[in-house]
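S.,

Sequence below, as promised.
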Amino acid sequence: MFSNSKKTNPPAAAKQLPPSILSAGLTVNGDLNSEGEVQIDCLVNGDVTAVRLAIGENAKVVGEVVAEQVLIRGEVVGRIRAKSVELDKTAKVRGDIWHELLSIAAGAKVEGLCKFAENPRENAVSGTKLSVVSSSEAAEATEKAVQKAIKAGASTADLPMPGALPGLARATS
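The prediction came back faster than expected:
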């Protein structure tokens, strides 16, 4: 009476793929692209693109993160572009966050701009990526900027303080 003799299977496209897991102790040098879910518990030196992404408490990503949903418990050095971004209390982010929804738990550390964007995955500044530079490279860039400003007639109030570094990330095209 209540049973249905016609059993239907969902179409293949509707089935979820199992998550890809990158375990602790692994170092990935290069970009990662996935059309599903990715769990990172290791060091990734490169950009990561996925539908859903979880970055574990002891994990670190040095590069841009692009996803529909991102949960960060570890560290990200680079821009994050996602529809939904959740930063757990152990999260550390050095870079801008482009988001539609943003949740930051007490204790999370963010060094960068948090910017609302309707389509953050598509609306990022094209052609610009972050790269990590050494403190000596940053100091050299600061010195060049100061010399250029002095030649252009800038007042001392416009110049960086002695020893100040412009950060450890610079935009490249």
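Residues 9 and 154 are 70 Å apart (CA to CA).

Coffee later?
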